[in-house]
């Protein structure tokens, strides 16, 4: 049962291969098995590749199965259409387009499996790229909000600086009137005289201004700090919105690019393995000598060609014979006097009718 299935996969003619020896059948069963398992590998590779695209198991399996059937049909067609010739060069020229197609199929099949085989290494590279992208993303978003944040912080610093300057002024005035009262500066008279009162009043006025300034600026600072928190919240929200996009940066193209960053030798040998598997049926058929199946297939084709040639020859003879008969028939008709007189009478009648019709038209015009 399995042997019949593999013979079906090889694309060999059922009636011819069943009449061949067991060894010939085994050869084509091996070719069919290679075609089948190549399609299985294509199904696995295609399913994995499509899973990275759709991120859905059912879609991946369905489209992977369709892809495997497509590869199976192509391989079966390629193998079944290669026929043995008398010269190897003729066979190679005949098979060269199919070999190119097999190489393309092998590359397409091997790439998703390479991605799966080197998945851990690829994930490491993708993690590094994601981290770098996250840092760059935060920097770009921060640059976008930075001007507003800097402006807000500058206003807060300026308001605090005004308060600090006023506090320094009040402190200086306090030191001045205390020194006047102690007699260590100013008039250097101990006690609270008129100068002391004047300096004390100036200090009290500045202190009142400081109290008013603190109240006013503190309200502004509180408002600016609230705006700063809103800006920071917007920045954090924007980073949170864009982070899932960065986290989802692990599609098929990203993994292929990450695979290209790995050493090329392991990937190259895996591709060579699939290339060998994909081209092995073609190579086996090219290198193997003509077998029983090839002779019987050639015999069947030759029989069909002979029948077609005979039918064409008979058709040509029939056409030549019919032409000769019709030539003789029309030659005899040409010599028939009765037919000649009949046609002559009818021709004269037509000419008379034409003359009468022309005469009537002329008379009407006059």
From TrEMBL:
Q: What protein does this entry describe?
A: DUF4407 domain-containing protein
Q: Which InterPro entries match?
A: DUF4407 (IPR025519)
Query: Which species is this UniProt entry from?
Result: Paucihalobacter ruber
Source organism phylogeny: Bacteria, Pseudomonadati, Bacteroidota, Flavobacteriia, Flavobacteriales
Q: Where are the transmembrane segments?
A: 28-51, 57-74
Q: Which residues form a coiled coil?
A: 149-176, 207-241
| Entry keyword set | Coiled coil, Membrane, Transmembrane, Transmembrane helix
């Amino acid at each position: 049962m399995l042997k019949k299935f593999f013979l079906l996969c090889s694309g060999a003619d059922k009636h011819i291969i069943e009449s061949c020896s067991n060894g010939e059948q085994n050869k084509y069963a091996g070719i069919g098995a290679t075609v089948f398992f190549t399609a299985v590998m294509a199904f696995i590779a295609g399913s994995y590749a499509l899973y990275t695209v759709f991120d859905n198991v059912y879609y991946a399996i369905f489209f992977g199965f369709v892809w495997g059937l497509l590869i199976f049909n192509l391989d079966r067609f390629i193998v079944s259409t290669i026929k043995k010739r008398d010269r190897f060069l003729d066979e190679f020229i005949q098979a060269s387009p199919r070999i190119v197609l097999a190489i393309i199929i092998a590359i397409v099949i091997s790439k998703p499996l390479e991605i799966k085989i080197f998945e851990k290494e690829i994930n490491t590279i993708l993690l590094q790229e994601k981290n770098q992208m996250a840092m760059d993303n935060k920097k770009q978003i921060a640059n976008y909000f930075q001007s507003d944040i800097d402006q807000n912080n500058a206003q807060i610093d300026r308001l605090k600086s005004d308060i600090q300057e006023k506090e320094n002024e009040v402190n200086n005035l306090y030191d001045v009137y205390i020194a006047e009262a102690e007699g260590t500066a100013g008039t250097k008279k101990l006690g609270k005289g008129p100068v002391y009162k004047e300096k004390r009043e100036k200090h009290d006025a500045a202190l009142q201004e400081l109290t008013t300034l603190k109240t006013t600026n503190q309200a502004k600072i509180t408002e600016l700090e609230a705006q700063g928190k809103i800006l920071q919240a917007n920045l954090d929200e924007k980073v949170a919105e864009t982070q899932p996009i960065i986290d989802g940066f692990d599609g098929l193209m990203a993994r292929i690019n990450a695979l290209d960053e790995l050493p090329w030798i392991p990937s190259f040998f895996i591709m060579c393995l699939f290339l060998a598997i994909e081209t092995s049926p073609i190579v086996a058929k090219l290198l193997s000598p003509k077998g029983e199946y090839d002779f019987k297939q050639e015999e069947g084709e030759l029989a069909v060609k002979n029948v077609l040639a005979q039918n064409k020859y008979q058709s040509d003879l029939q056409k030549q014979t019919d032409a000769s008969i019709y030539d003789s028939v029309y030659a005899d008709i040409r010599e028939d006097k009765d037919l000649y007189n009949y046609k002559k009478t009818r021709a004269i009648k037509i000419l008379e009718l034409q003359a009468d019709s022309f005469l009537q038209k002329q008379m009407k015009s006059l």
